[in-house]
């Protein structure tokens, strides 16, 4: 399993992902789930992947192959709008799943489903993020819910719901994304490091800020420590129960 998320705020986009694809007792594998494509001054596309690794890798291979074909009718670079690119990725995923569904079902190896988050910006348009379902259809983020998640999303969702709004700064959105990932890692063994973080500033069409973090990275360790201490302080400041107040007055 895995956990990936994208956040859309007024100033741009934030992407974050883990790298774990398998977490058995004695067998752990990692692969990057973040794929960045940049055409300076023209467009930027970032894809996050979750689900069947063979399907997602095949989709990424087909995407790269189509980019090399000058006669391709559609590709990451040729879609006039980002939703057209989302439709294209969904179609590629559906083709791959159909090719291998029967064999996987007969072998009992599980499903071929994969999910994607596509985000980026085309020159002259606003930044956008899309969640592409295994069925090939997709949705976009909204001002009410300006983030999208794939994979093990429930553990990292509370901080996003409480903090993220369109007015959130890119830097705070990035910190929330890392805390969301850290919370998921703490609760679920199927999500693990290294973590990847990318930040795209609106109308800046160059390679986005990118950082890879391990559990021993100074920034990750400091963030984890301060977040834990902050939650303990917040808990200690919550209102006291009535019997606690009476006991405190009696002790005085």
TrEMBL record:
<protein>
    <submittedName>
        <fullName>Putative proteasome-type protease</fullName>
    </submittedName>
</protein>
<keyword id="KW-0645">Protease</keyword>
<dbReference type="GO" id="GO:0051603">
    <property type="term" value="P:proteolysis involved in protein catabolic process"/>
</dbReference>
<dbReference type="Pfam" id="PF00227">
    <property type="entry name" value="Proteasome"/>
</dbReference>
<dbReference type="InterPro" id="IPR029055">
    <property type="entry name" value="Ntn_hydrolases_N"/>
</dbReference>
<dbReference type="InterPro" id="IPR001353">
    <property type="entry name" value="Proteasome_sua/b"/>
</dbReference>
<keyword id="KW-0647">Proteasome</keyword>
<dbReference type="InterPro" id="IPR016545">
    <property type="entry name" value="UCP009120_prtse"/>
</dbReference>
<dbReference type="GO" id="GO:0005839">
    <property type="term" value="C:proteasome core complex"/>
</dbReference>
<keyword id="KW-0378">Hydrolase</keyword>
<dbReference type="GO" id="GO:0008233">
    <property type="term" value="F:peptidase activity"/>
</dbReference>
